[in-house]
Amino acid sequence: MTEVGIRRTKHRSGERPVRAVNTWLIGSAVALGAFELFMLPLILLPRDAAWGWALVVPVLLTTPFWSLIHEAIHGTLIRRRAVNDACGRVLAVLYGSPFAMLKIGHLLHHRYSRTRERTEIYDPATSSWARTARGYYLRLCGGLYLLEVTALLLALLPVPVVRALGRRVDEPNSVAGLLFERIVQARVLWQFRFDATTIVMLYTAAFLAYGVHGWMLLAALAGRAFIVSLSDNAYHYGTDLDAPLEALNLRLPRALEQAALSFNLHGVHHRHPGLRWYELREEFLGEGGKYDLGWGAAAARQFQGPIELT
What we know:
Elements: H1 3-44, H2 56-60, H3 62-73, H4 81-95, H5 99-112, E1 121-122, H6 129-150, H7 159-169, H8 176-183, H9 186-210, H10 214-232, E2 250-251, H11 254-259, H12 266-271, H13 280-286, E3 293-294, H14 295-301, E4 307-308
Helix pairs in contact: 1-4, 1-9, 3-4, 5-8, 6-10, 7-8, 9-10
Pfam family, one: FA_desaturase
Transmembrane segments: 21-44, 50-69, 136-157, 199-221
Keywords: Membrane, Transmembrane, Transmembrane helix
């Protein structure tokens, strides 16, 4: 049997217990979302406002929460596609942005990374470091998540208006126009609108449940926004252009790597996007097992700012 065949047999033999782990992780994520949005404000905060510190937990678990959605985007969370997508939609609603939009945006990222999508790059012929830096640092420090949430407003707009907006924001160094065009496809639009409505209703109810403590939920969402936005381009900052498969493998302690569902092995993921999270480390070791940077160093160096196109 070939090495690939042995690897696939090993994966198949281990799939059942890992599927059980995935099911447990999904249930835990939903329970955590329910605690954050309703159980905490309705049961615990009336007893003692100090319980608000418990919101630190879901903030710190932002990366594994997103990693579950990421697995669903690639169809690797649950084997049955319908169940996989349903779980992805539920998790995305708790996250605060429709699954259809997150999926389209992420798959466009895979296709156009370092070509149309290169967040930190600016062309000195058409812009400047200072002009680019304003939007860059805003996006880095929470703006990406803010864009994902404000995109809910697209659900209110007629299709021709969304298409017109897509043409207006379309440019060579952005996938926004492509994203807008794909969202209004008939097969996607109804799901996007339904999930957007559900998110608005869910979070309106949550803020009503928090009442005068609503600022606590807002602070937790700000923490989520910062972690999501800081992490997003850390795996690509300063890497080669015109290379969609280019991404970094970042060093993390093994416990944190497992907690993040191996999301730090992003270079492996870009080269093999069909691998499940528990298959990435084996592939990483098979490719030589060399990290490009530590996760903290990769996240911090983004604050050097935009990079001039050369």
